[in-house]
Amino acid sequence: xxxxxxxxxxxxxxxxxxxxxxxxxxxxxxxxxxxxxxxxxxxxxxxxxxxxxxxxxxxxxxxxxxxxxxxxxxxxxxxxxxxxxxxxxxxxxxxxxxxxxxxxxxxxxxxxxxxxxxxxxxxxxxxxxxxxxxxxxxxxxxxxxxxxxxxxxxxxxxxxxxxxxxxxxxxxxxxxxxxxxxxxxxxxxxxxxxxxxxxxxxxxxxxxxxxxxxxxxxxxxxxxxxxxxxxxxxxxxxxxxxxxxxxxxxxxxxxxxxxxxxxxxxxxxxxxxxxxxx
Amino acid sequence: xxxxxxxxxxxxxxxxxxxxxxxxxxxxxxxxxxxxxxxxxxxxxxxxxxxxxxxxxxxxxxxxxxxxxxxxxxxxxxxxxxxxxxxxxxxxxxxxxxxxxxxxxxxxxxxxxxxxxxxxxxxxxxxxxxxxxxxxxxxxxxxxxxxxxxxxxxxxxxxxxxxxxxxxxxxxxxxxxxxxxxxxxxxxxxxxxxxxxxxxxxxxxxxxxxxxxxxxxxxxxxxxxxxxxxxxxxxxxxxxxxxxxxxxxxxxxxxxxxxxxxxxxxxxxxxxxxxxxxxxxxxxxxxxxxxxxxxxxxxxxxxxxxxxxxxxxxxxxxxxxxxxxxxxxxxxxxxxxxxxxxxxxxxxxxxxxxxxxxxxxxxxxxxxxxxxxxxxxxxxxxxxxxxxxxxxxxxxxxxxxxxxxxxxxxxxxxxx
Amino acid sequence: xxxxxxxxxxxxxxxxxxxxxxxxxxxxxxxxxxxxxxxxxxxxxxxxxxxxxxxxxxxxxxxxxxxxxxxxxxxxxxxxxxxxxxxxxxxxxxxxxxxxxxxxxxxxxxxxxxxxxxxxxxxxxxxxxxxxxxxxxxxxxxxxxxxxxxxxxxxxxxxxxxxxxxxxxxxxxxxxxxxxxxxxxxxxxxxxxxxxxxxxxxxxxxxxxxxxxxxxxxxxxxxxxxxxxxxxxxxxxxxxxxxxxxxxxxxxxxxxxxxxxxxxxxxxxxxxxxxxxxxxxxxxxxxxxxxxxxxxxxxxxxxxxxxxxxx
Lengths: 278, 416, 311
Hints:
The structure holds three protein chains of three kinds. Chain A is an all-alpha fold. Chain A is built from 13 helices and no strands. In chain A, 74% of the residues lie in helices and 0% in strands. The longest helix of chain A is centred in the N-terminal third of the chain and has 32 residues, at 69-100. Chain C has helices at 33-53, 71-78, 80-110, 118-130, 133-144, 149-156, 173-198, 202-210, 215-226, 228-243, 247-252, 264-274, 278-310. Chain C: Residues 1-22 are annotated as: Disordered.
């Protein structure tokens, strides 16, 4: 509760200590991840919580090359970047049109988008697989980016529409009176004002796409376009007993999100709790 | 087994035929996809480089995809959706996603019957796995042998004699356990490995008394649940578990977790195809392997699986590419099979291999009455075998009784 | 999948005074085309096709297939694997939703402004929610394995006999999976509750405290009712996510031992892509879709009507 000053009593202190201890316990798996990833081969069968006798950074190099993580990292960035860009452009345009054209049609279209949030995607995946197969889009960047576009466009439109509806129309009307085309107005005047909701859409959809395993498993398995989760999956299958190596690979794969988390955790939390009135 | 080589059939059929496969050509590029073997380098890559030495004007571009679902779906996607490879790996028989005859049914493989060099290539006991409607849809390039493979050094250290009967095996399990080792490594969480062990047991328990089990099952004259042999097979797994034959945590282990137990000598043996020699030696080059048949109830009743269990096929696109035919011809009749066998530990199509690890099998391999193709190859769908593999796990955790496992296999047989 | 059904965050600026004469349209309708195209081709058409394939015996390979009516559904009901997967999915979802929400709400309440390290602790608990479910589940697989950290820990405190192969144990495997999922979901429900708490005026609680209401009474009478919108979202969201669990199961158990931890999603994947039964697989997906839709819509309706009563 956003109360003002509360007194810091001994009970508060006890609560604080308890929370910190619980937090440490919560991160224990991540601590094990780091610890094990640094152990040399000779130590992988020793007690799990033993400290490494020597720091073996070589695990990282080996995981990087044998899991082809560089390639996977590049693929993840292309796929996530492409999908997020598509969602931002298409989502904001659609939402703007819906929000600024009151009337029956835009209400119908809005409903169509919102229902897309509720309808689970699983049922469509198998037919999508065969549709994309016949279009030759299975195993391509374009295919999976379009797929993610379709998967998350309801969410993007929903977030953008709510935001735009609450925005004043002054600037855009002024711009239109000045004779700017609608697109120019949108791009120069409206879009910059959407910065905060764009950040929400980007972080939320970006994380969901980045972490997704199921869709690439179906659409990208066995190609050279596999993103990080799939690369890790295939890597674990080949070296499952060498946990030091597996964990080095996993840590590398988690690193981009961990960094993003440290840099922009507030933005991320807002993205994930984005739907609630604040 | 067949030994004759393409004698009778070299007629002028080829010219008149509508066969899709083109005449062998001397130059060009061939694309190939196959499942990755886990060996580095890929055994097929060795075959390809020796082929390219003999045919310098042909280049083979190969891709190796992760084994299992990934390979299966990539193959099907590419055969269906354009971007076809000229040549691809297929599993002989029908039923599976990469099964040769399934793909042939869907019109995705080229008919190779008219190629004179394919005559006599396929063993009699494997004919139904490569031929359908009297036509040949792919060629074999190795012979897979399933054996109980020992870590020679660890075995010697334990002082245990190689068991010749099931009773001796169970006794050996107890001895090994007392020494803090286990007789067998088992990847109980891998349907492939667990299924293979059960299948190897079935070679002894089922095929000894019911050699025609599969055809009788197809005709509905018997079922897994009704078969004495299958009842004994599943019971044997329970007995082996009780005797402490498997390592601790076997029910949760994957192949990459179980294999090192053999290499490190914690487990004395592992039931695997001899084709896995390459991968095991890859983990530890000094490993001394010894392959023996998994013992039957009696020494005389011991059977062995040895069959042509891998195939290469040509796609519709490859059918127009003469170089693809040249490559296949080399692989199965030009020495490619020997190169493949030497790298993997599988047997070549003709003759045997000069590998001391295989000495323990030479006797039984010469004894045709006791050599069978893998029992699961002609099963109508992959689910039956998958139920068998899961069943091993169920028997180990006590979730299933032998009768439960057989019932679920019969149920899976109906799904096709 | 993250779904939010409330009105999205409003722009900070105030609405301008109404009554200004409306000018021309600022956005041509054609701007909707790309969005609708994506939506319809990637969501609606495949979903409808999927509902259609569920009544066929299509094998994914041949271009011909037969309409088999309800055969796939009969097979699912009679098939031990699928029926067990349905039960597993429901049990897992209920467990996870309750545990993640109780934990998340408790954390949100405990992390009030008196806690000096609240931002850090909040971030710590939220972190698993943004990390790859597949990758983090592998860490847990290591923790749970027979010679892994958990059994070591039990051994160290003299509880050797409790040690087991957690992920292959017919009794424990499903709870082990649930623990991993709860670990991932708790942070998410926590921040939803935190956001909800921030919108509750502090004066209300203070006034109640002055009136002499104890903490539990204040929580029951004031906090919980005012948290209703956040509760609706947290419950619905975690339910939808929990019903579709796939990654964690694949990484931890592959569905074993003998289907004990298989979910509708894993069985659907296995049937479709490992066994080539596309018709059967889509029938399973249709059931999963119905379960998710039914659960989320029911929850929304019930919780929304409670929200209204409270107001």
